[in-house]
Model the fold of this input.
Amino acid sequence: MRSFLTDGRVRYVAHASKAITYLGKPVTSLDLKSDVDEKPTELVAGSLHFMLIERAGHLGIRVRG
Done:
């Protein structure tokens, strides 16, 4: 999984595999909404869940299994 930060926005870009899904559908590229948004983006890969988090102006990726 790769992500890019541009102008304060984070964009997920998939590798050749379509193993990452959003709302049950494979994604290849997607702008992520952080957990400060009412509906944050949650990506899924098998049993792992990925979410963009924001704390004190810093961004990170939370991974849960």
Observations:
- The chain has a mean pLDDT of 89.
- The CA atoms of residues 11 and 31 lie 4 Å apart.
- The beta strands are 2-6, 9-13, 21-22, 25-26, 29-32, 42-45, 48-55, 58-64.
- The radius of gyration is 11 Å.
